[in-house]
Design goal:
Distance between the termini: 26 Å
Number of helices: 11
CATH architecture: 3-Layer(aba) Sandwich
Largest sheet: 7 strands, mixed
Strand order of the largest sheet: 4-3-2-5-6-9-8
Shape: globular
Order of helices and strands: EHHHEHEHEEHEHEHEHHHE
Mean pLDDT: 96
Bound molecules: S-adenosylmethionine
Structural class: alpha/beta
Number of domains: 1
CATH class: Alpha Beta
Helix content: 40-55%
Length: about 270
């Protein structure tokens, strides 16, 4: 697994509490992951998320994934765990505005140490967020602890692709994204198996490259003023972010980074 030093929880919280978090929410929308609602539908279908079930979203951000599950899948209740207070506050506001506060609740905690009861959820869910968590074995073990036997862990995440990142590419990607490390598909399969899960799906969604082309078009052809506004009108910051997005697109086209989808059943 490729990793860098000097990146931890505090750095991630700072990103999601500030300018970069606002920028990402503008470009990605409330659902802050590659593929938006279509990606959530694909994950929910494959994981067979059932009506009246209860779930936990580990690293839920503003909770848009939870609101999607409650609305579109008639999930009875969702508990979201996130370490950034600013996104939880925003999430509670959005949830209240949509009248879903009885079924969607937020917990401010590290996803590796959520303090949620063991075997309490029918499923654990996450979308494009575990890449931010340095201790992935602990995180997967926590997901496996929270879900009941026979329940499902379903998530998407950014992973190193089969072509592999060079050392320099990994340093650049991890530093710009504030990831302490990046897992690959085989690594996640190993961690899930070691935590008592039967892995049913572990696959590339194939979305990464095309979606980064889309984000660049949105930034450069439509949302330029709005994006600059989130960046306090700092042109040089916009140029750096655009250059970073181009680099991510290149890495995806070369098979060096991907969005992967996992569905595993707790045995
Ligand atoms: C890309 S966002 C998640 C997006 C969300 N899943 C969605 O689809 O809208 C990443 C989130 O992970 C949270 N996060 C990162 N590390 C965490 C940790 N160790 N524990 C809890 N939350 C964490 C961040 O605060 C941020 O809100």
């Amino acid at each position: 697994m490729k990793s860098i030093s000097g990146v931890g929880l505090a750095e991630v919280v700072s990103v999601y509490s500030g300018t970069q978090g606002d920028f990402m929410q503008l470009v990605f929308g409330q659902q802050l992951h590659i593929g938006g609602m279509k990606a959530s539908i694909d994950l929910a279908d494959r994981a067979r998320i059932a009506a009246d079930s209860s779930g936990v979203d580990l690293c839920c951000c503003n909770g848009a994934g939870m609101r999607f599950l409650v609305r579109s899948r008639n999930v009875a209740s969702m508990t979201g765990v996130d370490v950034t207070e600013a996104v939880i506050e925003r999430g509670r506001r959005f949830t209240q505005e949509e009248g879903l506060e009885d079924r969607v609740r937020f917990v401010h905690a590290d996803a590796c140490d959520s303090a949620l009861p063991s075997a309490s959820a029918d499923f654990v869910w996450s979308e494009d967020a575990w890449c931010y968590v340095p201790d992935k074995p602990k995180l997967i073990a926590e997901a496996a602890r929270i879900v009941r036997r026979g329940g499902v862990i379903a998530f998407t995440d950014w992973v190193e692709g089969p072509a592999g990142l060079s050392g320099a590419e990994a340093q650049r990607l991890l530093a710009m994204m504030t990831f302490a490390n990046i897992e690959d598909v085989g690594g996640y399969v190993g961690l899930l198996s070691a935590s008592g899960c039967d892995v049913r799906i572990a696959e590339d969604t194939g979305r990464f490259a095309s979606h980064f082309e889309l984000y660049l078009k949105m930034i450069e052809m439509q949302l330029t003023y709005d994006v600059l506004r989130t960046l306090a009108f700092r042109d040089e910051l916009l140029a750096t972010l655009v250059e970073g997005f181009r680099f991510l697109g290149e890495m995806a086209r070369a098979g060096k980074v991907a969005q992967a989808r996992f569905v595993a059943r707790r045995v």
